[in-house]
Every structure is written in C-alpha cells, then in structure tokens.
Amino acid sequence: MSSTVIKGGTIVTGDLSYAADVRIEGGRITEIGPNLSGDTVLDATGAYVMPGGIDPHTHLEMPFMGTYSADDFESGTRAALSGGTTMVVDFALPSPGQGLLDALQMWDNKAGRANCDYSYHMAVTWWGEQVFDEMKTVIEDRGINTFKHFMAYKGALMVNDDELFASFNRLAELGGIAMVHAENGDVVAELTAKLLAEGNTGPEAHAYSRPAQVEGEATNRAIMIADMAGVPLYVVHVSSEDAHEAIRRARSLGKRVWGEPLIQHLTLDESEYFHPDWDHAARRVMSPPFRNKKHQDSLWAGLMSGSLSVVATDHCAFTTEQKRYGIGDFSKIPNGTGGLEDRMPMLWTHGVATGRITPNEFVAITSTNIAKILNCYPKKGAILVGADADIVVWDPTKEKTITAGSQQSAIDYNVFEGHKVKGLPRFTLTRGHVAVHDGEIRTQEGHGQFVKRPGNGTVNRALSTWKDLTAPRPVERTGIPATGV
Ligand code: URP
Ligand code: ZN
Ligand code: ZN
Ligand code: ZN
C-alpha cells in the first residue's frame, strides 16, 4: 500500500499544537511522530496541519422557493475542498406528504457526485404516522441522528408547536438530536404582507420582515419545548444577540443546547441590503438576514466564551438570474447565500488573525466540535491514528482577494467579493486523496462517501439519564384516608 507523509508542519487540533509528521495509508492516518518517511511527501514547513473543516449546514441542489440551489454535490464539494472543508452535512428535505426514506433516496441520487465525504440531516417538514414510524429507520438503519424543524417558511416547510413537540418527544425516545430554524413564521408572514401592502417591495424589506425578535422568540420557544421533551437541541444559523441570549441562558441552566452562527453573519452586516444596486442586495437575501455590529459582536463573543459552538455556512447558492424572480416582491427572492469555499479563510482572517479566537479554537469550531456534536468523532474532526485522513495543511501566510471569477461555486457572484483573506489551504486531503495541491484542484467526482452518525450519543445518554432521574413520580404515602366516611 502506498503511503503519503505530511512533513515538517505543526499539528493543530482542538486542544493542542505540536510539531510532528503524519503518515497516511489507505485513506487513514496510520502514524504521527517525528522523522516519518513515505512514498509521497507533502511539505508542510511553516504550515499548520489541521483536521479538515466540516460544514454542518449546506443545501446542495435544494428544491426551494420554486427553483433549485445552483451548487450541486459536485461543484459544492469542490468549493468546500478548495477552501479546506472536507465534509459537508446537507439537509434531506421531504416535500409535504413525502416519506423520509423516499426523500433520502432522492438525496442519495444527488450525492453520488460528491468529491468529499458527506452526511445528511433529516428535515421534518410535516407530521404524521409515517414520519413517526420512519424516524426510527432513519436513525437506526440509515445512521442519521439529526432532524431539522423549520419554525419559519409558513405554508411551505414550517411546522407548528404541536408538531414540534411530537417530533421532539419521538427524538428523545429514539436518541436523536432536534435542530431548529428558529424564526416565528407567523409573525414573519404578517410583517411580509404588511410591508408589501405599504409598497416596501425591495430586498431591504426582507430584513425588515425578520427582525431579531422573531428569532429570539422562536429560539427561546424551541429551547423550552426541547427541555420539556428531554431532547438535545441544535439551533442553526444563530444570527442575533436575541437568539444567542436565549441559548446562553439555557446553557447556563444546564440545558443541552448548541448554537451555530454562520460565517456570513459574523463578517457581513445589514448595510448590504441598503446598497443602491438591486442585484447586490438581493444576492445577500437569506434567512435570518444579516444584522448590525451589536449582533455580530455578540456572535463573536459567543464563540470566544463557548456559548456558541460551531461555525457553518448554510451554503444555499442561487444565481443572479434566480434572485431576480423577486423583482417587485422581495418575498419571492430565493433565500440563501454561498460561503463553502470561504468559511475557513474568512474565519481565520477575521477570527484568528485579529486575536478573537486561537488556532485551536478555530479547529474546534470548524471541525472537532461539529464531529463530536453530530457523533462522527474521531472518524472525522481529529488528527489521530485511525482517523480518516481528512486534513488541511494550512498556510497562514498565503493570501488572496475573494472574487467570483476564480471561485469553484457555480454561481456568478460571491457575497465576500473583494474581501482580502490571509490563511489558505496549501493542501487539502479527503480520505488521503490530495484534492487541493498548492492552488491546483485535483478533485475526484464520486470520491465522497456517506458518513453514518448513529443515535444515542453520549449527550443523549446523559440527558435521558438525568430526565429519568428527575421525572415526576407519584408520592409514596404512609396512609390514605378512607373515602366516603
Ligand atoms: O435563507 C436560507 N437560510 N436559506 C436556506 C434554507 C434555510 O433556511 O436554512
Ligand atoms: Zn434555515
Ligand atoms: Zn439552511
Ligand atoms: Zn473581510
């Protein structure tokens, strides 16, 4: 078996930095230590050898708002690898009335083209006996332990509180993790109708229709419902202090809740929507919308203090042509932005280089924490003997200016256009295959494999033990008065 050795670098993990070489055979790490040799040598002098990034939130070729997101599993995972991300977790979305297993079959058909490993979250977009039954198969046979619920997109993907509670209870029973898109969909629908009626039709009104309160309210509601059901909760795309505050409070009270900010919300603000060019503003329409500095500072503080756990992209890329469906009515602009290729360099540049986070924290929030929460650690998210060789050799001196003209993503613009980044992959390895070699893309379509993530992880077991111990019980009494006397 041929071997690859990454030589002369500094290994940076979620908790440690040290000088060592890494040997890779058969797609896995087989040795870590000094002075290793191998058939192929990758020079990591002056670079950091880190677990490849895991993006826990993507929508590749997603049917949404009357169209499909433009990056599919091929271009999306090529973009990921180019930016140092070696695994993506995409959302399998059943249409209303469609079974979960049926939807998974559709996602399997699309994902065969992936250049890097991938997994799915299952979405619960409606509720019924079939969904209840199939949840067990999804967790136990398919190895998918995370289920997303949309509290927004009324009339399309949204589920109500009774459905949320029923689904959360089922997940608690099966050892799954609940996820929520937390925005109050009823209020958003009302505000949208009012804004349109008043002639507020431009992309900036998308932001007006989704103030931070709709996110704070829904986040708190989801946390309380999850606590009553006894299920761990993962809140996707946390964009505001209002939502972060609810998560921070819940965690300080011992509730099992994780928050996921996006690189877009950390680095881009609401002024994008006031740009005089309609296309510029519409290209940045996503839910929740970009916000002001107060919210951005809160998200950074959450990552620094540990109240927020991971950074994702919610990569859901639409072309300018697709965005133009919403000319004259902002509610028809397909919601979503790209970022897969830029998450790691942008976070390094705006996080590590500014001193807001350490290199070890960078690894934790882009990879290791994600693998632990989603229950695929240490296969993923680790530089350890036996782990998959999903590795990024990170050159902290390499620079570029982000521009759509040289990106891997299929769309015709980039929301980070013109941003200078310092810190880029020298090599990206996906299960040992060198997919990025000093700026040259050498991806292999179909190389990606599905990653199973079993249910009943350690947090599920701890939480269900605690909930059993503290469950309401009948009081054992010493005497019961006779009735009818
Ligand atoms: O605007 C967004 N976030 N689009 C993708 C779908 C979702 O809500 O995650
Ligand atoms: Zn969402
Ligand atoms: Zn999403
Ligand atoms: Zn920047």
TrEMBL record:
The enzyme's E.C. designation: 3.5.2.2
One GO CC term, this protein: cytosol
Protein source organism: Roseicyclus marinus
Quaternary state and interactors: Homotetramer.
Keyword Iron carried by entry: no
UniProt-recorded name of the protein: D-hydantoinase/dihydropyrimidinase
Every Amidohydrolase-related domain range: 48-418
CDD domains associated with the record: D-HYD
Pfam families: Amidohydro_1
